[in-house]
Fold this protein.
Amino acid sequence: MRFALLLTAALFMAASNCQADDGDNLTYWIAGFYDHQIHAFVSGTSSKDIQLVFVPTYRSVKAFGKEATYKVCGIGHHAFQNCDRLMAITFRSKKIFNIEKYAFAYCNKLPTITIPEYVREIGNGAFYDCTNLESIILSDSLRSIGVSAFSGCRSLKSIVFPDSLKSVGSYAFYLCESLESVKINASITSIDSCTFMGCKKLNYIEWPSVMHIRENAFRNCTSLTSITMPRNLAYLHPYAFEGCTNLQVIVFPETKMKVSIRSHVFENCTQLRKIEIHDNVFRIYDSAFRNCTSLPSLVLPAEMQKIETSAFEGCTSLDSVTTLAEVPPTLGKDAFKDISPTCVLTVPYGTKAAYIAAGWTEDIFKGGIREVAPAGIGSVKVQQRQEEWYDLQGRPTSHPQKGGIYIQNGRKVMLKH
């Protein structure tokens, strides 16, 4: 074992950044000695003008007068950074496990890539600002995507996460302006901060098991029109959907998970027209729906406890607010400032006085405050119906004939005149 470690260290000193013998313009560094095999990473290229790359399975190098063979198992950090003529990369090695940080950053001619099947990690910024990258096929062994891994890939159109993927770093797809759809696998429970921020064409999200949507996760995704929140959602963090200016419908499905809507989450969603909130939502934080200028009506669930400062401020079309809570929710300062001047507040029967005492006054709801009618039948409207005639086959007829036999009011009769 000691000999193996010494050999590895000696090879590292002798072979680090050595150029391959067959003129492929690649350089390598020794990664370690595992399973009776010396492993190495591609560390770079001797020419930044390289256009085609073939990553081999094995490499040979001379150290201390002896030639050693090692297996290529990864792409090292910054290996191909700024190779702005790189058009294609082929992985002959099927045992690439890692693509390290900034490995292909700024390769702005690279149009597509298939991640080898055994890759487990894509490092931070690995494909940062690859502006021409349109498609990428992720490996079925992938476990993690690092911070800013695909940030600035403005031509990337879609992404499908494999079932093996466990984590996606913040800013991973930041400013992927052509990204239209995202299918998030069931193993992902958290969408990190700014992950999809600025994805202007994103219009479809699939997220079966997500529990956390963190700060700025979908901020300024201006093509989103409808969102149904994940059923496992527990935390919706500030600014998550702020500036989604074409968002029209938001649905919080009925679940057992209690959730609050945090500060500024839907602020400036100027086309928002419908919010569907069930009893699992118990609190709306400050400025959560501020300046949602197209919202016409709002129904607050029975379990709502608090509406914080400026939560609906500037919702200038808001003309109807209905609250189902028997106990008036705590109302923060300016929670409904600058709403429609004719907005009507509807409260449960018998609670009007309590709501006024809690600050829900006609100074805010200038259209008035009314209580819903008590349970039961309030009124009955009876409309007299014209007599109905049926023939003996049970078919209705509006013009019974003299001498005919008909059914009238459940009885058989003959029309004599």
Observations:
- Residues 1-23, 376-386 have pLDDT under 50 and may be disordered.
- The chain has two helices and 34 strands.
- The two ends are 118 Å apart (CA to CA).
